[in-house]
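Notebook entry, structure prediction.
Reason for the run: the old model in the group folder had no record of what sequence produced it. Starting over properly, with the input documented here first.
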Amino acid sequence: MAMANGMRVASIVRTNSPLSIRVAEAFGNEWIKLGGQVAVTKVFDGDTSIFSDLPINIGSMVFVAAPPDQARLFR
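New structure, fully documented this time:
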C-alpha cells in the first residue's frame, strides 16, 4: 500500500525479539525487491530517543515490527 502511494524510502523500527527480527527482515527484503530503499533500521529497546533522527521526508515511511504494547510507546 505504501509503494502504491508513492513512498519509496522506508525506515524500519524493530525490537530484539526473534519474531520482530524476522518480520523486519522479510519486510526489508520485499521492499527492496519492489524497488524501494531501506534508509535505516533501528532497534527499539525502550529508549525513544532513537526516533529523533529517523529520515522522515516526502516519499518516506516507517515500518514498525513490534508487538502492540511496545509499538504504542512509539507514539
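Summary: The longest helix spans residues 18-33.
The old model has been moved to the deprecated folder.
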